[in-house]
Design goal:
Bound molecules: coenzyme A
Number of domains: 1
CATH superfamily: Gcn5-related N-acetyltransferase (GNAT)
Oligomer: single chain
Number of helices: 5
Strand content: 25-35%
Shape: globular
Structural class: alpha+beta
Low-confidence stretches: none
Strand order of the largest sheet: 1-2-3-4-5-7-6
Mean pLDDT: 92
Order of helices and strands: EHHEEEHEHEEH
């Protein structure tokens, strides 16, 4: 899975990363953390810790890593997390997490492209719902998710602690339509015509 809008933008699911791209990914991640988020981390972690995180994520069967590139350089990433196999009741849903673009690569449309790719991938894997949550302080991300059709269904008042402050977090979902000719998700939920 890969693709871009032209202008050097691309988003691709990766199953392994060469060393130089891992270095770019870690640099982008620390730059995003320093600027204020996109990951659970509050403090920059450095190459070794971040590399352990990403190498670990690549090994987890329920996790997929997509990286965003600008002019061929890795500048951000996002993870798609699928429910574990024993969770049959929630198998129709998946979670988008850890989405960020390095500050030096923002404003080109990469995040919008990246979220769209995660949606396509989740739908192709058979998921009908994509869930995500975000700190209330991440205003750009909130605007982006809301303009992409994510529905806020709740707010957790004690979602995170950042530098001694308790921060609320918003929870969102978006219904995904199946690729091809499956029954529409709205109908599956009993909302469409004739249930
Ligand atoms: C949110 C984030 C991923 C957006 O990345 P980006 O690549 O700059 O976003 P895009 O260029 O795709 O822009 C998407 C939308 O964001 C908004 N946006 C982008 N840059 C903006 C800016 N400087 N000021 C205000 N809004 C802005 C616009 O609404 C834009 O919509 P448009 O396509 O209609 O213009 C990035 O700011 C980021 O990493 N933030 C910190 C991490 C975070 O909050 N992650 C989400 C938690 S899961």
């Amino acid at each position: 899975m890969s693709g871009g809008l032209g202008g050097g933008l691309s988003v691709e699911r990766v199953e392994e990363l060469p060393d130089h791209e891992m270095a770019e990914l870690c640099e982008a991640t620390d730059a995003a953390i320093i600027e204020g988020g996109g990951f659970g981390w509050v403090e920059p972690q450095g190459r070794a810790a971040l590399e352990r995180h990403f190498r670990g994520a690549l090994l987890v069967p329920e996790r997929e890593l997509l990286v965003a590139r600008l002019d061929g350089h890795v500048v951000g990433s996002v993870q798609l997390v699928r429910p574990p196999r024993n969770n049959e009741a929630q198998a129709f849903g998946a979670t988008l997490t850890h989405a960020y673009i390095a500050p030096y690569a923002r404003g080109h449309g990469l995040a919008r492209l990246m979220i769209g790719r995660v949606e396509e991938r989740a739908a192709a894997l058979g998921h009908r719902v994509l869930n995500l949550d975000v700190r209330e302080t991440q205003q750009t991300a909130i605007l982006l998710f809301e303009t992409m059709g994510y529905v806020r269904w709740g707010t957790h008042p004690a979602y995170a602690r950042v530098r001694g402050q308790t921060v609320a977090g918003h929870y969102y979902y978006k219904l995904l339509e199946p690729p091809g000719r499956g029954r529409s998700t709205e109908r599956l939920m009993g909302r469409g015509e004739n249930g």
